[in-house]
Queue: 4 jobs
Job 1
Amino acid sequence: MSMRAWNPRLLGLECSECGAAYDLEAPRTTCTACGRPLIARYDLDAIARDMQRDAAYASGSDLWRWRAVLPFAPHHDVV
């Protein structure tokens, strides 16, 4: 059984300029149509239900306290 590499709350990627939508099948950072950066789109309502803001602050002061809104799946190791 393979584990999904992406955060389950990550819905997809969207171009910051033209709005083109991309799925998560292949890694990409820029829009194939216009070359602009892609923005990660999350199910923020679900994240808000699952995580209290204070819990993030209690998890430390580094980047990993925001794991709920990082694109990697929860089972990936913190480095």
Note: Residues 12 and 25 are 9 Å apart (CA to CA).
Job 2
Amino acid sequence: MKVAVTNVLGVPYTAMAIVCLCNRVSDRRVRRCVDGGAETVDEVGAACGAGTTCGGCHDTIDDIIEVRRAGSRRLSVA
């Protein structure tokens, strides 16, 4: 049985979701920034522009950072 993997927004990874509407930044781009070393909303903003205008997406960016950190902790423990 195949299980669909979703991002923090519940969107399948095969789809793309816009996280930052002001700067048109996708969830995939935010994940790439986090995977590249960004650890805070400000660092993600510096890397790709997400969250640098109105701030309405900060909670979503924080969620993506949390999920990526949790995933990397599981991988490093295993």
Note: The chain has a mean pLDDT of 85.
Job 3
Amino acid sequence: MVSKLPHPESRQWLPTTEAAYQLGISPCTLKRYFKRDGILLEGVHVKRSPVSNQALRWNVNLCLDALHRASQTENLRR
């Protein structure tokens, strides 16, 4: 019997609470990096859920890369 696994892409895009947990930050901080700080970009790191026009889904791997690059850039400025 073959078990049905979720499509790999669906595991990449997580809702805000799960993505924040995976990244080790709060949901508010994650949203701030997107909305105010511009570190995370819509269509690359975050997308709106097709189920709800208000829900956001996050690509944790791409977010982690972007946050790492942003922290490296910040360290160079000091």
Note: The beta strands are 13-15, 46-48, 56-59.
Job 4
Amino acid sequence: MSNIGETSQLLNSHNKAFNFFIGGETDKAIETYLKTLKSKPDSAEIHHYLGVLYFKIGNGAQAIYHFKKAELLYQNRK
């Protein structure tokens, strides 16, 4: 797959997950973000959203993991 095709596919997956997120479909959002994370494990944004979603469902350990991972990735951008 070309770089443009991969980028487009990742963007589509992220948009799909975000739409589940704002639509209140938490389980589908988590599932879609986790699938997207396999292709883009260094995405601070995906880790951040997963942190929010896990916090929302009361899974504190997973929320903290993803928030810390997002923080580290955001810091590495500087």
Note: The chain has a mean pLDDT of 91.
